[in-house]
Amino acid sequence: MKPKFWFVLAAVAAVLALIIALVTIFSTGTGPRGYVAHTYTRAAHLDLPGDPDNRAYTSTLAPSAVARAITSKWRPQSQYTDSSGIYLRYSDDAVIIQPKAPGSVIHVMDVDHAYRRYHSHVGGSWGWSSPHGESFRGRGPGAGK
């Protein structure tokens, strides 16, 4: 066989490998939203009304086990837990994991929608609770003088 044949064969193999890599990267998504979508069972009937960005998923695992799995792959900027569920805040998305027999329901939504919806739970822990800039060093004009 001629060397030209091997170069053509190598080029075809490289193009196929590139296509497979791109499909894999873009089909699995990145971030917690993509991870949840590919790891848990979609439950569209549990989507929250009024938020087109919200997606609900279910798992047979307890909320704490689901949260451990998600946070081991994607470290949240903030995490809050109470008796109603586990609230994970990321830069663009929020993941809310709540108990639902026999396991958990997982809501993935825009972080702003999540804050408005779950303010009573996460208001003091997600860092947006201070109305007058008191949460940053110095606590605003005239403070601590």
CATH architecture of the domain at 30-122: 2-Layer Sandwich
Which structural class fits the helix and strand makeup?
alpha+beta
**Global Rg:** 22 Å
Q: Please count the beta strands (DSSP E, at least 2 residues each).
A: 6
What is the CATH domain class of the domain at 30-122? Alpha Beta
> Reading side by side through the largest sheet, how are the strands ordered?
1-2-6-5-4-3
* Average pLDDT taken over every residue: 81
Instruction: List low-confidence stretches.
Output: 128-136
Query: How far is the N terminus from the C terminus?
Result: 85 Å
Strand content: 15-25%
CATH topology group of the domain at 30-122:
TATA-Binding Protein
Tally of DSSP helical segments: 5
The ordered H/E elements are HHEEHEEEEHH
Largest sheet: 6 strands, antiparallel
What portion of residues is helical? 25-40%
Organism: Saccharopolyspora thermophila
InterPro entries: DUF4247 (IPR025341)
Protein name: DUF4247 domain-containing protein
Keywords: Lipoprotein
What does it look like?
It holds the Pfam family DUF4247. InterPro entries: DUF4247. This is DUF4247 domain-containing protein. Keywords: Lipoprotein. This protein has 145 residues and is an alpha+beta fold. The protein has a domain of 93 residues: TATA-Binding Protein (2-Layer Sandwich). Helix content is 39%, strand content 23%. The chain has five helices and six strands. A hairpin with a 2-residue loop joins strand 3 and strand 4. It is elongated and about 70 Å long.
